[in-house]
Amino acid sequence: MTFTESAVPRGDVTAGRRDPAPGDIRTGDIRGALGTIRHGETAPSGLSAKFKTLLAIIGPGLIVMVGDNDAGAFATYGQAGQNYGTALLWTLLLLVPVLYVNQEMVLRLGAVTGVGHARLIMERFGRFWGAFSVADLFILNALTLVTEFIGITLAAGYLGLPKIPAVILAGLVIMAAASTGSFRRFERIAVALCGASLLLVPVYVMAHPTASQMAHGLLVPSLPAGSGGMAALLLLVIGIVGTTVAPWQLFFQQSYVIDKRITPRFVRYEKADLWIGIAVVIIGAAAMMGLTAAVFAGTGGAGNFTDSAGIAHGLEAYAGRTAGALFAVALLDACVIGAFAVSLSTAYAVGDVLSLNHSLHRGIRHAKGFYAVYAGLVAAAATVVLVPGSPLGLLTEGVQALAGVLLPSASVFLLLLCNDRRILGPWVNGRLTNLFTSAVVGVLVTLSVILTVAVLFPGVTEAQILMIMAMCGVAGAVSAGYIVACRHRAAAEPVDRAGRENWRMPPLADLGGPALSGARRVGMSVLRLYLSLATVLVIFKIVQMALVH
Fold it and tell me: DSSP assignment, residue 358?
């Protein structure tokens, strides 16, 4: 069952048209993993009908959230629990509103505009920013995929599976699942894997951490300095933020919402889907920190994190072989989900800017470029992991650094797009959303600067980190004051949100260029300079370290 669409759904996502093209596969029934919504049916009434509609919509929010609990997340959360016990659990609760606000904005953009994130950036801010966003995303996602295959080798090694066949088989599964030409078939596989991520719950039960310690860690913020000092702790907190709020999530969910044919009338259902995904992610992350805290407390392993395989062996010693095996299977599952989402976000973004056919509804014959990017990334990442002597540790470090460089720009553009009335009309951000998101962007920029400095200068001290935070805070306060003063003078007209469920973005060609104020041009120039310098310096540093290695 479905809502009747009084506005004609969008056609090709890359064209920005209102009218669907003949035979356009983006128009029609929503065929989700858990149900179908027929195009043109009347609005559901009654609890049962609404629940069935929700089941059909579930997918984008769940996959994008669970996909972020990948190999890097396993390592980061595991390190937090093994080195600091339950003391950093509170960071997860702080991330909940950040996750929701960021992803709610992109799902709104997808449903209302029918245009992918990369294409919107290019059309509204110029070809430089569109090309930069996609190029940086491509490099970052390629490195992220390498970390997924590293996780696969660790899980396979613990389970006693040979490395090369395990990597090749996993790569073939990842390629095949998305290449059938059936959106529903892919989503069913992905949703099943999302359900399997809850294997961490029985592992948590087997480790039986103390409930009072878990509650204290969640509700009472603390920063316990371990053997590495406060600087190491602060960098780990930044790592928790970076592994939970990733740039690829923005590109993936916006395009996936479009590919699933979700329109403005389904936004509230998609928001519920997003909350379900956030709940699953937080449960998994908290379970990871809690079980590692219990397993390594009072042992020689406390404060000496190695990798995810070390956690599995610690679990085996503490709770038996079954617990270790379940953990390894959960790690393997997380790596495959992460590879699905990261590869698709890249293929969608490249398809956006190059105007390629890019949809899971199409088979390989009708979307060769889309699937070539997807499969090529997977194959390249698997190959790097199998090459003897590859600097895998440096590649993992590169993922964190480049993520820190890209995320602030992605967040800035997201905020600007969601305040563009030509794009979102009655769906633009409200004042409270803008205030909160602006604060989040300021924090992300600060974390980006700290992480970049830490990569370039590994000996950075606690005092230097605090100085950077103070300087960024002053700059943010000055910028906020200037923006508030400009908004007060502008006295923008209130937004009329009546009838917004039927409102869609006009064709891109009809929008015209964005009106950029002098202050915004200066700000974007500064952002361009920072991103260019930071990217070049980080890549140079990683290459230098690889040559020394």
Answer: -
- What's the confidence (pLDDT) of residue 241? 81
Whole-number CA gyration radius for the chain:
23
Three-class DSSP category at 169 = helix
The 10s digit of each residue's pLDDT in 1-41 is: 333 333 333 333 333 433 334 345 667 889 999 998 987 66
Q: Rounded to the nearest 5°, which phi and psi values hold at 22?
A: -55, 130
Distance CA 452, CA 415 (A): 23
pLDDT digits over 151-196, tens only? Answer: 999 999 999 999 999 999 999 999 999 998 899 999 999 999 999 9
Residue 264 to residue 149: CA distance in whole angstroms:
37
Q: Sign of dihedral through CA atoms 196, 197, 202, 206? A: positive
> Mind giving me the DSSP string for 372-400?
HHHHHHHHHHHHHHHSTT--HHHHHHHHH
Q: What is the pTM of this model?
A: 0.88
Please check whether residue 61 is in contact with residue 72, taking contact to mean a CB–CB distance below 8 angstroms: no
274: left (phi over 0), alpha (psi -120 to 50) or beta: alpha
Closest CA to 178 of 298, 6, 336, 334: 336
389 neighbors 383 (Cβ within 8 angstroms):
no
* Per-residue pLDDT, 465: 82
